[in-house]
Amino acid sequence: MADPARDIEDAYPLTRLQSGMFFHSQQDAGRSTYHDLSSLRVTGPFRAEALTSVLAALGAAHEVLRSGVDLTTFSEPMQLVRASAAIPLTVEDLTGLAEAERDARVARWRAEETARGFDLSRAPLLRVHVQRLTDQEFWLHLSFHHAILDGWSLSLFTSRLLAEYDAALGGATPRVPRPGTRFRDYVLLERKALADESARDYWAALLADTDSCDPPRWPDEAGDEGRSAALHPVPLPAHAARGVREVADRAGVPPKAVMFAVHVAVLARLTGQRRVVTGRIANSRPETEDGDRMVGLFLNVVPLVVETGGADWLELARRVHRAETEALPFRRYPLSQMLRDAGRETPFGTLVDYREMRSYGKLAHRRIAVADADFFEQTNFGLSANYGADVTSGELRLRLNHDTSTYSAARVAEIGAHYADAFAALIEDPEAPVGDAFAAQDAALARALADWSDTATALPAERTLPGLLAARADGVADRVAVRSGPHALTYRRLHASVDALAGRLRERGIGPGAVVGVHLPRSPALLVALLAVMRAGGAYLPLDPEYPAERLAYTLADSGAALVLADTERPVAGDATPVLRLGPEPWPAAPAPPDLPPVAPEDLAYVIYTSGSTGRPKGVQIPHEALVNLLLSMSDEVGLTAGDRWLALTSLSFDIAGLEVFAPLLAGAELVLSPDGAADGGRVLEELRNSGATIVQATPSSWRLLLEAGLGEEPGVRGICGGEALPAALADQLAGRLGALWNAYGPTETTIWSCLDRIRVGEAVTIGRPLANTGVRVLDERLRPVPVGVPGELYLAGEGLARGYRGRPGLTSGRFVADPSGEAGRRVFRTGDTVRWRPDGRLEFLGRSDDQVKIRGYRIELGEIETVLGEHPAVDQAVVVTRRDERGGDRLVAYLVGDERGEATRAPAALRAFAAGRLPAHMLPSAFVALEAFPLTPNGKVDRRALPDPGREHVGAGPFVAPLTETERLLARLWAEELGLDRVGTADTFRDLGGHSIAALRIALRVREATGVEVPIAGLLTGGTVASLAAGIDGGGRFEGSVLVPLRERGGRTPYFLVHPLGGSVFCYAALTEALPEDQPVYAFQVADLAGGEGPESIEAMAGLYLRELRAVQPHGPYRLGGWCLGGVVAYEMARRLADEGERIEILAVVSSSIEDPVPPEYAVDESAAVLGAFGDHLPITREELRAVEPELRLPHVLALARGDLARPDVGGERDLARLVRVFQRHARAVLAYRDTARAPYPGALLVVRAADEEYGSAHLGWAGRVSGPLVLLDSPGRHSGVMTAAHAGELAARLRAVEASGRAGLDRFGASEWSDGE
């Protein structure tokens, strides 16, 4: 047997870029990352022997075409050059097919080929496939790994291949000269660059102050769960190439600099950043005589950093060219080393490239010509702008290559429109400012903003609170206006008392402009005092008796209060302000209203003090017209009527109290003034239930107290939440319990609330849209509107603006500024809050601008991380801060307050995994510190300076645990060797020890060599420990587990047990679990094949297996069972058996589960039918077409088609798909056999939930006669395939909650009916 080592001609290390490409392609196994495919449609004869001889000559000349890769044998990854390695050539004859079928076969082969990987150890990493169309036409496909050919090399290779093939057809022998320069010479150049300190210093300085500059995307954009590539051709203006050349000539730069300038300008536009950083491809070929004739990967990805401010197109092109020129001496310094030097991750997710390839269509050949061309590639960048010349026409072409898991097709089309606008603008006027290039996009943005901000609403002629209340009082005189404990006042009595006290205040000289402190406990007397001050023309100043005396004294002195209203019991801080003491009944009803002056809309209604950044509270002055606008707008938004009761909980020193004490009075409703405020959740909950309140406003903290006190479903109560950021988990809990919930946002300076959003379970929590007569601006640093998705500072305008800060003209002028829109005399308030527009016109709150930090070059909003952590079901509150590490750098630390068990907050690795699914790597905290409660400042805010430092126990790596088994010792040794550590324990995780991508790949390959078991790279990078991976290896590569999956374990309610549908996965129940209350436990049964076993063959056996697992969690009833699709049938059989054993079934619900027509019978016997059924018959191929695919290629072909929205989350590769089809067919056989077997009916009630948009054979889905109890029929929105999705799961959850709360009667409002045999 020949020794393969003797065939090795040379060996040398990989370049850094090759290493990175090989890693990403291995990590994305089964996908197309860095698998390139170039296709040419050639006219002329095809001769296989001629093409074979040409390929042999090319392979002999270029060593990269004879090279494979060894990643593990040597101390570093090596490429091994073979003395010979034939380039594989396969031929497919399509000459007998119709044109449409030929085109379909070509497209199908391309899709299948890009899903086929390369064995990196086998040379060459290139294969050629020919598809003959006619005797004089064929497709020539070159399929290769990008790590062996760059774009210029592909052009050289293809041009030479075509020329030699043309000559060979004429009888010539192919001759391709072998370059004298070797690829190892290029590797040596890179090694020299790595040792160049000047290169290191250059790139370190350039990256020192760069921010990530990627176009925004939305988490709910439709995109693949896995990576896949898509191309978007950008339609450029006619003769764009000529226009670019003319601009380049005027600027004195190459045309490429003009093209790159467009890319830079678009990024500046889409991100709002003046200093743009993106990746660019640098050509690093050896500068030898024959260097330009070599083929290989002679590239480096380097940062392109350009300042765009104040530039026109000519200047921007010069800046781009200057940036490229300055970097030229350092272009071979690898990107991976730049990032290691800077201690950061890649600062860009975009790439720009220009490929000056040859125009194959213009090459002169005697016997062949290129008629068409296509090219496919997928990188690890989210978005690449690829410039080049059309291979047939030579015209300029721009294609946006995008990762569909990062940007949807619709989003990339929007981005492409910006490129098209930029090209049109620069060709029309190269001297125009770059920022003016997007006129069409600016106009579209202006139209959208105008539409979203159109809040103009007519106000009544009377715009003061006393005037409106007086007009309202006549119609509700004898109704209760305010109630507090045992005390109550009717509207008649309230207004008489107000008038009487207002008269006394007038006698004291109180009138417009005067400030009166109100120092009273919560009681009807407090309300009388507030209204009396305003009735007299003054402005009230709330003084909470519970506040520190020093603060109250400062507030009185700073405000210049003329008088203080106080009770007879409490002392008033300070002695400089006169005090009017009020007894329990200090206001005898006046025989006639006193003669009081009218109050003007611009007069002050109140002055309220808020904390200041300097430590001195500042007084915000609110006029009547601002208060009235807020009250009328909010009353309209929440539907406030005279029939409502508003439970007021908030301290009067918090400005939001103004809404809850005055809005009910304007509506003629009843105000229930809680004597104790919101401090005691149990007492507030009791008051809520006893008072019959229909609306409550509270902060998130107060709502959380109510939940902890036992707040249940209160469909008759509407809630308003504001004052601080509303966590998503809390929002879902409240929205699922209350009749309606709104999230309110607004600074004190714009009168309580400025924006409002209706919150629904499972939807994003935003601050919504502006209230009536409220203007919204989201502006960048230059006070220009930012595009949708780009963070900016929020400015507010309109009727709600305060007059300013009392006695602080400098502070007022700094925060209340001229409207940048240019309207004369109009002011806007600078909030200091960072927000962004969503595509639907709602505003997303990102945090305070002063909460913005910079970590490893990324500018990060801490509030965004806190929001994500707050979505974890076991996290009640989260605070994220920066801490200085041992090396002097900053790191992120998360502090968490969890539920009463605190299990999740004690598991840093689990929290990191949760956050990693929602945040980019640079935003992941390095430590997670669980606290019983946060330390607070005197005003109740989190005292961030008092948070404790994290310890080792707060990161993923815990105490050292020595390896015990042989496999654990093997893994620990490999990890230690690759990561340069002295020891590794069984509880350590790869990431926490500093593991990186290439090390993960090397370890996975070394483990496979040592054990024969494939260890998934993801298992290393996503939290696998030495112990867990060793257990999987010792189990033959299977990771045994239970068929019962806890989707949510916490909570005291009776659990739901849900059974998988056809195929066996339980991913489908995720949205329903989220839509159910947070304290509702949910378990789901997955097929045994997913837990490392082999699933049962019958429904009866499934039911038996699942019942054994169920009883381990809940030994006895009452039970709640259900399932969608096949799961409904299995749940029914489980319920039958439990009923036979005397157990009580509280709920049995089958969702879109037909027993009369459960599956098409062909699913059981036809693989193609089963495959298409597993994907909901949504794949773009018919059953007949799929059957025509060769059996061994059928599943790879399906994987190539099942991308984007069509992909299944439980299918990551061919092995997963084969398992899914096997299980799908087994389930189909089982349910058909169960349907056709007679058995005793289930004795209880069965709830049949039909998908409202689906058509069934009968109304009862075949369940009539299979139950002896009530058969309840109910519709829920969606089709069969959509009823469980996030769009509709909330409706299904609402129906389940209704039947939990009220039984069968609770479903009447959903149109439920009972089936009877007579129907």
From TrEMBL:
Species of the source: Streptomyces zhaozhouensis
UniProt cross-references to InterPro entries, sorted A to Z: AA_adenyl_dom, AB_hydrolase_fold, ACP-like_sf, AMP-bd_C, AMP-bd_C_sf, AMP-binding, AMP-binding_CS, AMP-dep_synth/lig_dom
Alphabetical keyword list: Phosphopantetheine, Phosphoprotein
GO biological process: amino acid activation for nonribosomal peptide biosynthetic process; antibiotic biosynthetic process; lipid biosynthetic process; secondary metabolite biosynthetic process
Residues of the signal peptide: none
UniProt-listed NCBIfam families: AA-adenyl-dom
UniProt key word Heme: no
Protein name, UniProt field: Amino acid adenylation domain-containing protein
UniProt key word Phosphoprotein: yes
GO MF, one annotated term: catalytic activity
Cofactor(s) essential for the protein: pantetheine 4'-phosphate
Domain Carrier: 962-1037
Cellular component per GO, a single term: cytoplasm
Transmembrane residue ranges: none
